[in-house]
């Protein structure tokens, strides 16, 4: 989900319009929990889940707000993030 948002984020810059993003989270599964124990993004994994999310009544769509089963995700890199200068 995203929207344009106009506000003053930094006094030096004054009022700016920026893209503001949000995502839905749920409890962490074992892979994500090892890195961030409180939450993980909700991930839709099939076209049927996407269709449910976009078209179903809220009570049905929100049943998709659940962690992926353990061992569904795979950590492919570890280490400290380094930004180039």
TrEMBL record:
Top-level division of the source organism's lineage: Bacteria
Q: Which Pfam families match?
A: SRAP (PF02586)
What is any one GO biological process for this UniProt entry? Answer: protein-DNA covalent cross-linking repair
GO MF term list: single-stranded DNA binding
- Name assigned to this protein: Abasic site processing protein
Q: Which organism is it from?
A: Bradyrhizobium retamae
């Amino acid at each position: 989900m995203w929207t344009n948002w106009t506000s003053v984020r930094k006094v030096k810059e004054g009022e700016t319009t920026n893209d503001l993003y949000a995502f839905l989270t749920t409890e962490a599964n074992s892979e994500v929990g090892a890195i961030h124990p409180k939450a993980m993004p909700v991930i839709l994994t099939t076209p049927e889940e996407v269709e449910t999310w976009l078209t179903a009544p809220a009570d049905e769509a929100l049943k998709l707000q659940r962690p992926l089963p353990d061992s569904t995700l795979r950590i492919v890199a570890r280490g400290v993030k380094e930004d180039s200068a």
